[in-house]
Amino acid sequence: MFGVVDLVIVMVFLAITYQTTILSLSDLVVNFLLPVNVSCCICFRVLYSRWEKSEYIAVLSCLVWVGLWMMIVANDVIYQKIVTPVWVVMLILTFVYFIFCVQKSLLFDEKILEDYTYEIRI
């Protein structure tokens, strides 16, 4: 739920920012929505895994992603070579993967609820 709420909050932020600033929608999507969407995908995928201490792995993975993203954005040569269709494809892929991760997490929660009855593993 937190990931979905965060994504909705970012989308509302983008809509308000687009209406009140001179920034283009493509700049806002590439610089705000895409990194947040990838971070949400990382969190959903890692937190709903069967790994021990998955929250630490999620935080570390998100930090690595932010570092990688900062290197891409800071290097103007790489940033300019990634054309708009690539950004659009990346955004679509992250949304598809985000939906997949949410569905998988819901199935995982359902399985956990089926496995435990009255706090006793069946």
Describe the protein's architecture and organization.
With 122 residues, this protein is mainly α. The protein is built from five helices and two strands; from the N terminus they run αααααββ. It has helices spanning 2-20, 25-47, 54-74, 76-81, 84-115; strands at residues 116-117, 120-121. It has a two-stranded antiparallel ribbon. A hairpin with a 2-residue loop joins strand 1 (116-117) and strand 2. The mean pLDDT is 79.
Structural class, from helix and strand content?
Answer: mainly alpha
Q: Radius of gyration over alpha carbons?
A: 17 Å
The low-pLDDT segments are: none
List SSEs in N-to-C order.
HHHHHEE
What is the average per-residue confidence, as pLDDT, rounded to a whole number?
A: 79
Q: Any idea what the shape is? A: globular
Strand order of the largest sheet: 1-2
Biggest β-sheet, characterized? 2 strands, antiparallel
In whole angstroms, how far apart are the ends? Answer: 27 Å
Helix content: over 70%
Strand content: under 5%
